[in-house]
Amino acid sequence: MLHRLRQWICPDLAIDLGTANTLVAIQDEGVVVNEPSVVALEKGTRRVLGRGTAVGKLAKQMLGRTPESITAVRPLADGVITDFELCEAMLEYFINKSSRHRLLKPRVVIAVPGGITPVEKRAVFNSAERAGAGRVYLIDESKAAGIGAGLPISEPMASMVCDIGGGTTEIAILSLAQTVVSRSIRIGGDELDEAIVEYMKQHFSLRIGTQAAEAIKIEAGSAFPLDGERTAEVRGVDTISGVPRKAVVTSEEIREALREPLATILGAIRGVIEQCQPELAADIVDTGLVLTGGGAMLRGIDRLMNEHLGVPVRVVEDPLTTVARGTAICLEHLSQWRDALEDGDSDL
Predict the structure, then answer these.
(1) Does residue 208 share a domain with residue 330?
(2) Which residues sit opposite 207 in a β-bridge?
(3) Cα separation of 112 and 114, whole Å?
(4) Containing domain of residue 58, as a range?
(5) Same domain flag for 31 and 135
(6) What's the rounded mean pLDDT across residues 80-94?
(7) Which of 346, 326, 321 is nearest to 336 (CA)?
(8) Residue 102 binned pLDDT confidence (cut-offs 50, 70, 90)
(9) Residue 302 needs a FRET pair 20 to 30 A away by CA distance; which of 146, 169, 175, 261 works?
(10) 3-class DSSP string for the chain
(11) pLDDT (0 to 100) of residue 57
């Protein structure tokens, strides 16, 4: 009864601390926060705008559009904290937004990339604790993605998951609730956007921002030929004349722009499969590969991977929230999944 009362007053939080977006989930309520990992500051100071409220969606709207007196910053890059103070401010904002009562500190489970170092893990623990969390646990994103996707990772068979986030791609083969083989590469949605920015500069002599590139990727991007190819209008600055102008780009051209980073992700997946035991590799022929994360929403990415890997590939429903959902399941059944978590009180 006391536990239920505490959960109602100050619910435990499951956090997917992503380079591009931060999601917070609560037991029985699902995802309650889904906002960009961006903070807006007064330039020349460390003061967050709007009395600490210029975080997330509001701050992202300022990216590339701020006057000289304001700067919009992303506290994470490639899945790790690059600005501890701002990450704390951002986490504090999201924790307060998710909590009903500020006198009690919630338990928190945070999903992090599998390839981060012990020092980087300690930075996450410290930032979360200073932001107002009580007991803090960490879980690998790939394992959280497998749990959130509903894969039978506790069974004695291979479950393979690839989570394509904003800053990293997490690939893992799971069996008996353990990670058998995994790889974390610092290529994700941000690199896809940068590839589009560079393509527009090289082939259209047009300078665009990463937000415009992301919009093009969503509107016309694809990883595999489409039944009906698409076009998108893009606005930018002519690199020769220096004046604003428009251009029309096709989905075929966006595919060409994304070819190299997608090939790198495919190579990493193939490398993970090659490292696993023959029996588990045989399982993957039947069970296939499950795609999660924002990058899994790119049109045709499942067909591209199926063609190159020769195994079944599917995208989970609502791939953007899969890691947050899996993290919430671990938090709800903490005793069952404790071995999958790292405790902030343990030595790293």
Answers:
(1) no
(2) 237
(3) 6
(4) 38-73
(5) yes
(6) 90
(7) 326
(8) low
(9) 175
(10) CHHHHHHHHCCCEEEEECCCEEEEEECCCEEEEEEECCEEEECCCCCEHHHHCCECHHHHCCCCCCCCCEEEECCEECCEECCHHHHHHHHHHHHHHHCCCCCCCCCEEEEECCCCCHHHHHHHHHHHHHCCCCCEEEEEHHHHHHHHCCCCCCCCCCEEEEEECCCCEEEEEEECCEEEEEEEECCCHHHHHHHHHHHHHHHHCEECCHHHHHHHHHHHCECCCCCCCCEEEEEEEECCCCCEEEEEEEHHHHHHHHHHHHHHHHHHHHHHHHHCCHHHHHHHHHHCEEEECHHHHCECHHHHHHHHHCCCEEECCCHHHHHHHHHHHHHHCHHHHHHHCEECCCCC
(11) 85
Among 57-71, 88-102, 180-194, 282-296, the range scoring the smallest mean pLDDT is 57-71
Beta partners for residue 290, in sequence order? 161, 314
Position 5, amino acid: L
Whole-prediction pTM value? Answer: 0.90
Task: Report yes or no on 21 lying in a domain.
Answer: yes
Query: What is the total count of domains within the chain?
Result: 4
